[in-house]
């Protein structure tokens, strides 16, 4: 139980309170002010005189990405499309390769779903919803299926985690230790909701009995990304099924394997045929077909803001299906001057580098108060250089490869742009090894234009306080650099200096995104002020990436529409029906 | 008979394993014992450790420790839920055994226990396992510069006193939500039926409920039960049983530490059968409502009001069906009605039947004991019952139906409400208006329309009037095991309220100010402008005006 708790409660907390499991050299990853941050570095130089120029630690060097990749002990059981309870080939017969990001080699060839397959899947889901047992059985029965599914996930945890790592390149320890237990937690959480979905009986101004029924919305189309294939599967599928919907799920073309496997487990748990259909394929073909489909009643998408816009448009052009979008972010992580710098560095590090930096809510803009800025940058550099990059199957590895060549190139382009626009490259900045898609943990400092004139225009002195008047135009110009504005989706930390709470609020909010934010401070007032002022769907105070099933998640502004998780996540998959009937001579209204 | 041989096997082994009190999950035999009897024969099944005041003290101490220092309230709701799910799985695996214990101990129908009661208890436990991580506080809208939220915290050590009519079900009615909420429990099963609770306690321990979080003390109401109700270290007591005992529980709570009280008490629930009803369906429904579990149900439908148009047909059919009912050994799958739980109840029911006859009601069928051994009573129907007769007013808790006639909807409502109780009511009609009007007009905690005894985990159950207060089942039942704590903290002056104080950048000339706190009054931004010389150059400054 303790182990499970540690695994499913979130990484940030664990990493803050315990020595980092990944630091195989034995030194604690929990940095404290005054620690000598360089012993590993010195040792690395001694031990590896001929090693590449990157100043990596022993641990990192030992796990160098150039080692022969570890062969995962997992069999790939399913590569076809799952339609109406059966694994079938694509109508076109086509397949596409899914690639091991450690090497770029093909892991498996997967059936490539297209419009015709989406049509078949929607027809199956339609039938399962309109005529099948799933929405008609009691909520308790649905709950039991989901509970059995959660048990099966736990029973096959190792296999699932290995498949996930193989396909996506995320560290096996992270997949097995945190993500798979979270998936089980998530499924159980929504299993528990199934028999507790309540409508209101509402009082009317008249002799009417009005009751509200929450009914499943119908066939849900869901499109999930490649950064957390299993978790996103659970985020989407569990609430939809708990409410009694049927689902057509399109996985990301980079990571189709784990969803197919767990979908087969869901059927083993007793899911009727046609209730969950999984179509592997590409966005412009299968994804677009799903979004435009007239037989789909609801869409949920997690991915980039650009794609989100297209999806919303396709929904509008077809049958006005409601859409839930969980999109990109450029989330600020704000370190106040009262923070313990060592801890702040560690948390900020994980906020951005977790999952190879491939998190929609990555805390990729690290705002640091000027009083602790220099120390923070120095320690962040040391921490980034200590980060263990290597084969994600290897124990102790903190960072695996990026998902694919496209992302890999994109990240390196952003790094170049950072250098070109005058930010200081403090750590990393290049690929690791010469095979696969490994990128060095990269840190930029001073990623802001120097103000051409003082930002503070006025100090208004009144009898009661001093009011600071900022020049807004200067603030807006401070964070113009691409690396401070755009979602990189890679292991690139951008450290920005700020002077005061007012200023950092404005700068943190000066983004089209609003997915998440981190605040690191000991001050109750600063925590309160920032958490209320930041325009973001989640504010983590003195923690980051805490993703419990009960906590709603979603974006402000262009980071999305709607909320997933928690009781709020149910709303996406429920229709609301008011049933009204007159009552005569009732004792009470 | 298969069931019987199963029983004799079990009888030798199982009950005796769990006859001791479970205090801090340790099974320990302390001194005195009492006998629990087989109501089929009146023979002793097992000797049970008899808990008294000192044992309750020990149990409360263990529960106190488990709550104040133990892991149970400190673990996450999900972890508690996981343990309760395992508990449910174990109970499910012991379905037959639990059903057999309740049959042996309480004379309940074995096949009903196996197919309905125990699976129902398992479902209920799973419901609360799923609820353990769904206990929500709220963030509040404050009128001053404050921010506030509520926390829903477990109430603490909970005392449970449960009846003998549904030993396993009642155990989980109480223990399920209390454990899900994070409370520590001291439960006293009924003196007549202590066996299944002790087995459940063992299963709880096996599932991982920490020591002290669940304590089972068999014993009598006047000693162990009274000690729970009057204990200074129990934070809340929940009782299911008769209204008289409920009153003493509440009194003891008031006289001790003002612990909160939840009572699920007696009933004399009406069923209104309207002219438009299908007579066969109505008779079967009423038969089930009155005679299920030998009439030993707090929500039993015992006052049957039939509209005059179908009264005669209904009466004739009701007698037919009652006569057909097979009374006998509850292990026999063909039997529909087992023995009453013990001699006391048996005597009480026969006394009421006698009273009914003496007060002038007409005995249509039944009214006599069955067989020469055990506590069996025939399904009994009275007609010509007046509203003020004892058999129309008192809870008999046996297979006795009082059949009455009414003319109009208004009359039916008036008669239905003519009772000190308000636990449940049934309506049999095809008319939507009748159903709506009557269901809103009867003062009772549960209304069943064209169904009865529809006990659902998500549906709160509990009484109006002297049938008690506080709900079992549903999310409502979690509420009584939770306390609400309001947390308010100062929101400092510089805290941004949100978008209003934080507009998007537009022009170079746009300037912002932050505002001071003056004698607790809020400053609000207004578009009132003037020039300031505070800086070296002349700049436009936006000032605030004070609003009260």
UniProtKB/TrEMBL annotation, chain A:
UniProt KW Oxidoreductase keyword: yes
Aldehyde dehydrogenase domain segment(s): 87-448, 479-579
This protein's record includes keyword Transport: no
Keywords tagged on the record: NAD, Oxidoreductase
Gene3D superfamilies: Aldehyde Dehydrogenase, Chain A, domain 1 (3.40.605.10), Aldehyde Dehydrogenase, Chain A, domain 2 (3.40.309.10)
UniProt-listed InterPro entries: Ald_DH/histidinol_DH (IPR016161), Ald_DH_C (IPR016163), Ald_DH_CS_CYS (IPR016160), Ald_DH_CS_GLU (IPR029510), Ald_DH_N (IPR016162), Aldehyde_DH_dom (IPR015590)
One family name in Pfam for this protein: Aldedh
GO molecular function: aldehyde dehydrogenase [NAD(P)+] activity
Active site (UniProt): 326
Protein family (similarity comment): Belongs to the aldehyde dehydrogenase family.
Protein name, UniProt field: Aldehyde dehydrogenase domain-containing protein
The species this protein was found in: Eragrostis curvula
UniProtKB/TrEMBL annotation, chain B:
A Pfam match: Aldedh
UniProt keywords, alphabetically: NAD, Oxidoreductase
The keyword Ion transport is annotated on this UniProt entry: no
GO molecular function: aldehyde dehydrogenase [NAD(P)+] activity
Subunit structure: Homotetramer.
Protein name as annotated: Aldehyde dehydrogenase 1
Region: Disordered, residue numbers: 488-509
InterPro entries, per the entry: Ald_DH/histidinol_DH, Ald_DH_C, Ald_DH_CS_CYS, Ald_DH_CS_GLU, Ald_DH_N, Aldehyde_DH_dom
Highest taxon listed in the record's lineage: Eukaryota
Family, as annotated: Belongs to the aldehyde dehydrogenase family.
Residue span(s) of domain Aldehyde dehydrogenase: 32-487
Coiled-coil annotated residue ranges, if any: none
Catalysed reactions listed for this entry: octanal + NADP(+) + H2O = octanoate + NADPH + 2 H(+)
Residues forming the catalytic site: 264
Species, as recorded: Eragrostis curvula
